[in-house]
Amino acid sequence: MRQPPSKLRNSKLICKVVLIGTYSAIVVIALLLWINVSLNPQAQALLSLIVCGIALLYIAVVHLLAQFNRYVAMAYLLVLFYVLLATGIVWVWGINTPIGLLIFGLVIVLAGIVLTGKHSLFAAIASGSILISIQTVSTLHWHTPDISWTNTIPSYGDALAYCVVFSMLALISWLYNREIEQSFAQAKQAEEALLQQKATLKLQVKQRTAELRQAQLKEMQQMYRFAELGQLGVTLLHDLANHLTALTLEIEDLKSKAHSKAVTRAQEIIRYLEGVVHSTRERLHGGTQTQTFTLARKIDEVVAFLQAKAAKAQVTIIWEAPATIWKYQGDPDSLSQVIAIIMNNAIDAYGPEPTAPRSARKARQVIITLQRNDKQIIIKIGDWGKGIAKNQRKYLFRPFHGTKRAGLGIGLFIAKQTIETQFGGAIILNARSDHTEFIIRLPLTHEK
Question: Which of 185, 186, 172 is nearest to 10 (CA)?
Fold first, then answer.
């Protein structure tokens, strides 16, 4: 039989109180009988004393169950005790005995409170059946109850017995009603807390909805700016392609007249830019540029492309290709674009060209390394420029949050998206380094 926690808690308390009351009543009756037997030894008084001893032993067993937290069994035995007591009284003195009928009423009330509501009905049926059975036995003259008490004058003992039963009924009723009132009070408090929580939740939902709308608006604004940027990019790409074609013809004409390293250098840059334009056109049309390429050679091309800018800013690019040739599969131009973005930022981090004598200046260097371990290929690009403030690092890879006044603020965002979506890798800022260092991690699944 399972009961709700509050119901079980109430039953335990009532059982304990009834148990204590029963104990006390039996002890008092036993003392009175002992005194009576001492003053006037009679067989009937002695028998009553023995019955009290058995009752005390029974209640002791019930109390022992309470010590082991067997409250359900304790409740059944307690109800059974009063059933036996009432049955014994009406068996001896007849079914009209008031005290017996009162105890049967106590049994019905007690069963409904310490057990369940349906047990009250069972107790009523059992009580009625016992009374009918005893009356049937009496009618058939199988047993004759002692009804001599009907001719005796009521005594204080009778009044005391009634008072005990009334007290038990009142105590049980008071305890039960008190628990109900406490349950109602707790339910009311829970309802008030629920209403308050509902009001708080409503406010939180309202605030969260406003935040989501604000975030959606901000995202839509960013998408609109990207759309504008994309339109401008297509236009610039078209103009760049036309101007590169014209510039190539002019360079070819100059080269036929004068062989110069600068002219050769310009041709290499133009070829690099033409490759970028071609790759961008393919991506705009949904094409891919997946191919096998050498990682070190791609870094060589980017370093060569940015060498002139670095020299003008008096920045030294330190790069030494590893002895092992590592081939990779993917879009080489996309990887070049990512490396170029980070190297550009590293060169710009040193600011304007210094005016102090070379011997008095700190080394203005951009260092690039290419490494490989069991899980990935690692490209590191570091500089010792102005650095990135801690409060700016959380916005580092977000669009339109650049630290350069002349920049668009989307370079690192594009680099991160490219590495993650096209290569399945990652790009991070090394927080443990004492200088600015970006780390690009490429999984070996694309290595060839």
Answer: 172
Q: Which amino acid is at 16?
A: K
Would you state the structure tokens that stand for residue 368, as one six-digit string? Answer: 């690039």
* Chain segment 151-172, per-residue pLDDT in tens: 777 777 767 777 777 777 777 7
- 21 burial (CB, 10 Å; 0-12 / 13-18 / 19+) is middle
Number of neighbouring beta carbons within 10 Å of residue 71 = 20
The predicted structure's pLDDT at residue 412: 84
Distance CA 440, CA 295 (A): 12
pLDDT in tens, 378-413: 999 999 888 887 777 777 877 766 555 555 567 788
Question: Per-residue DSSP letters for 13-31?
Answer: HHHHHHHHHHHHHHHHHHH
- Residues 107, 120: contact at Cβ < 8 Å? no
Query: Cα torsion for 217, 221, 226, 227, to the nearest 10°?
Result: 100
First-to-final CA distance of the chain: 70
Give this prediction's pTM.
0.45
* Rounded Cα gap, residues 9 and 15, in angstroms: 10
Q: How many residues does the chain have?
A: 448
Q: What's the rounded Cα separation, in Å, for the pair 85 and 91?
A: 10
Distance CA 6, CA 10 (A): 6
